[in-house]
Structure formats: structure tokens, C-alpha cells
Amino acid sequence: MQLCSHPMIRLLSSYALGIVALLLLMALLVIGTFYQVDHGIFRAQKLIFSSFFFFYPLERIGFGIPLPGARLLMYVLFFNLLLATLFRLRYRPSVIGVYVVHGGILLLLGGGLITAHFSHEGAMRIREGEASNFSTRYYEKEIVVTRRESDGTEIVTSIRHFERLQAGATLLAGSDDVPMTIELVSLHPDSIAMPDQTGQFADANGINYGHLRKRAIRTVRSADEDAVFLACVVGARIAGQADKVFILSDAAGSNVLQCFYCETVNPSGGEACITCARDFRDVVIRIGDVDYGIRLQNRRDYYPFSIYLTDFQRRTHPGSSIHKSFASQVIFLNPKENIERRARIYMNHPLRHRDFTFYQSSFDENDTVTVFAVVKNAGMVFPYVATIVIAAGLLIQFVTTLVARRRAPATAADV
Fold first, then answer.
1. DSSP conformation class of 14
2. Which of 139, 188, 233, 338 is deepest in the core (most CB within 10 A)?
3. Do residue 277 and residue 389 come from a single domain?
């Protein structure tokens, strides 16, 4: 049996499958648009457009409808077009442009899949006169364990993708850098730690450590539909010490009235103690003479280069407080490649470096802090190349067809 006549090849390369996939993508676009009205862009993207399968929730009925996700349909379209080009099209000079167009569309679909899997977005905050070499992702979280040495140096261990784990999973096994075993007791999406003077939540979950012992994890609905909160209960097993169970929350810093570690009253309700300067999101465990800080935060991406902010400039329209423009004067530094480049980042004029693009996004603290939107797009070049290839294919097919039609009457006359 020839490969092109194999039933699976015929099914995957069929025109009917491609049409069905396109129709389903159109339907998902409509469903996702309505879903994001109530749940925000991030949740719509995560549930519908970044998944292979999902259950669309029907809240009034109480169950969900199983549907294929947009990512699965993109894979189906990619392989459908690829197999149709290889096994369905009959190769002849008159349709050479069609082959080129198919190749351009495959590049476009392939670039989209690469972007979906290997790209990310975040924010970089820099104060005037300082530099930064990391950005913070908008939605992804991580648990970091920071080992604080006596000389002031820090060793950071990051725990990522723990949102996919089940209760009871081991997040971190003991090692020389972190001599404790950390386990996930429970995970609470879209939740924060709220005051609970009764202590019922702590008693029910065995919480016996940390400054959030008198708090309870509650589900919240933020006014910002794309604000993502997360809280979890974590346990730490340490040789020679009693097991410690505590709450981690990335939105627990406000309204902490007394520092758990130095017992200083903190009437301002800020994010850090006014005496020992510990961040209230940190749970600090001492082993021997070394402190280990455990924190839940937005995931950070560190880079081999840094951006130094020399000056931030903001202009307003005369006689008003409406922003006219704001821009950042920066120096891009990459010592390993001996690069030092000055640039001005402002609206529609980002700074680009390989797969990275830095856009002027916002500012803070009386115009002394700039905020860049950082986009790492591994498939950035694919749309440009695909557009050129598709345009070339259409032009080739047009010229080929035009030449063939002009030759046809002459051939008929000779006969």
C-alpha cells in the first residue's frame, strides 16, 4: 500500500478536516470573545486559546461542554496543510505558485506554534540611575527560596509550574543549598489571605507557622479582570525541627499590623516591616545560623544583559494633566558581547535585541521609575518571512497562469 493511500494519511490530509478545523476556530473566536467579557483576556486565553481540550462552563446549568482548544486546532491545521501539500497536490509546473503559497502558510502556522510554546511577556521596572537584568511575568507564579549568607550574598532557588501539581506533591527535595523538604499541602487559585481572628482556617489546615497564621484563604474577584491572585498552604520538613505548615500568598502584604519576626508594630500596613525591613510575603525559617526566606511571587526571567535608565521624561498637554508623551533614555549593556548601546524608548519606538522587544509601558513614583513591557517572541521573524513567501507564491502563480493563457491560442492555431 502506498503511503498516500493509507487511511490515516487520507484522513489527516483531507480537505473536509481542514474546513472543519477552520470552522471550529471561528466558533472558538466567538466563544472566547464572549467569555472574556466576564472573565478577562487572560482567563479566556488560558482556557480557550492556549489549551488542547477544555470544558466550556455553563454556570446556570452546572456543567461544561467539552470542546477542542485553539492550540489543538492549530496543530491539526498545520499537519493537514502539510500532508495535503505532500500527498494531495499533483506536482506540475502550472501550480508551482500554489506550492509556494502553501509553504508560506505553513511558515505562518509554524511560527504561531513556536510563539505559543516559547514566548512570554512581562514587565521591567527601573529607577533612574539604576539598572535591571530581569523582568516579571504578568500571570505566572513561582515560589522562591532565598538563602541569606552572613556576608550578605543570596542564593535563590526557584520552584516553577507548581500550579500543575496535586496536593501532597513534593516541591523541593532537601539539598546542600536548601536543607529542607517543601511539600504542597493545598493550592487555591484566585485567592488571597484574608484576616481571620477566629483561627478556624489555621486549625483546619494545620497551619502552625508564619505571619499569616491568623489569616484564612478566601476566593476573591478582583476589579481588574486580568489580575491573577494565588495562595497556597505549604509544609516544610527540617531535620531536628518540628514540621512547619504556613500560608504563601502573593497579595498578603497589606494590613499586616505586627511583624511576626521582630514583633514591631506596623501601623502603616505596608509591604515590609519598618524595623527589620522583611517583606511580609516572606516566610523566614532559620536553620543553624542561616535564614531561608520563602516567598510566592510573579515569575522572574533573568537575562545576560541589563538596561540602565539614565533619564525618564514625561510631557503633558499645556494647561492640563493629560499625558502628551513619555520616554526613557537608556543604555543597553551586554558585557559578554561587549555591547553598550544608547537608545530612547517611547511610544511606537521600542528597543529590540534579538528575540526581545522593550516597549515603553508606564511610569511610577513621581516620574523616577519607568516600566517597560518586555516581549520575548521566539517566532518573531516567521510572520515577515511567511508574508514574503505567500506574496511571492501569489505572484508566481499569477505570472504562470498569464503566460499559459497567452500560449494557448498560439498552440491551437498551429494545430
1. -
2. 233
3. no
pLDDT at residue 6 tops 80: no
Report the pLDDT value the prediction gives residue 196, as an integer from 0 to 100: 81
Task: For residues 346 and 67, give the distance between their C-alpha atoms in angstroms, rounded to a whole number.
Answer: 42
**pLDDT tens profile 175-220:** 888 899 999 999 998 888 887 878 889 899 999 988 778 788 988 8
Is there a contact between 344 and 364 (Cβ–Cβ < 8 Å)? no
Does 265 lie in the same domain as 140?
yes
Q: Is the domain of 272 the same as that of 351? A: no
Instruction: Say whether pLDDT at 337 is over 60.
Output: yes
Q: What angle do CA 139, 46, 126 make, to 5 degrees?
A: 20
Based on the domain organization, do 260 and 328 belong to the same domain? Answer: no
Do residues 43 and 101 both lie within one domain?
Answer: no
- Judged by DSSP in three states, 227 sits in coil
Output the furthest CA–CA distance in the chain (Å, rounded): 104
Q: Please state, in angstroms and rounded to a whole number, the distance separating the CA atoms of residues 308 and 361.
A: 16
Of how many residues is the chain composed?
Answer: 415
